[in-house]
Write a structure and sequence with these properties.
By secondary structure, the protein is α/β, with parallel strands linked by helices. The protein is built from 5 helices and 4 strands, in the order E-H-E-H-E-E-H-H-H.
């Protein structure tokens, strides 16, 4: 899809068609438009640097989302996903790396649509939707991370 861009750091190989398919499924269900949506799959050092520069945090995280749009249902954004953190999370939660990366894509899009996880109650509400979508669309994440 031309409005979806995918970048990955050296050594990280992902299947763009799989990302596109998942995003199209989410787009149909959640009813949003895409002006420009860039996914950046990065390593630990890069996610730490982004965290330091933009959030003043000095630790890795699995995802950072930058929303450049003023409209909730027209996405213009960048999503940075730490592949090593996603792989660690997949082991911790006993899911496949593909499934965890899909969950992070869903999490980022939910943030762009106005979901928030800054308080316990908002986090619970977001997590319910995230879990439902992750389960519903997990078959579309197979083969996301190339070996």
């Amino acid at each position: 899809m031309k409005n979806i861009k995918l970048f990955s750091e050296k050594g990280i190989r992902l299947e763009k068609k799989t990302v596109d398919t998942l995003v199209l499924k989410l787009q149909a269900e959640l009813e949003f438009e895409i002006e420009s949506l860039e996914f950046n799959f990065v390593g630990t050092e890069t996610i730490i640097e982004i965290n330091k520069t933009h959030l003043d945090h000095h630790h890795p995280t699995d995802i950072i989302t930058f929303n450049y749009s003023d409209e909730k249902h027209s996405l213009d954004a960048e999503i940075f996903i730490s592949v090593p953190e996603a792989i660690d999370n997949s082991k911790k939660y006993a899911v496949t790396p593909d499934n965890e990366l899909g969950r992070l894509i869903i999490h980022g899009i939910l943030h762009l649509l106005g979901y928030d996880d800054t308080t316990a109650s908002k986090k619970r509400k977001m997590k319910v939707v995230e879990n439902e979508l992750t389960e519903k669309y997990k078959r579309y994440t197979k083969g996301l991370l190339k070996k």
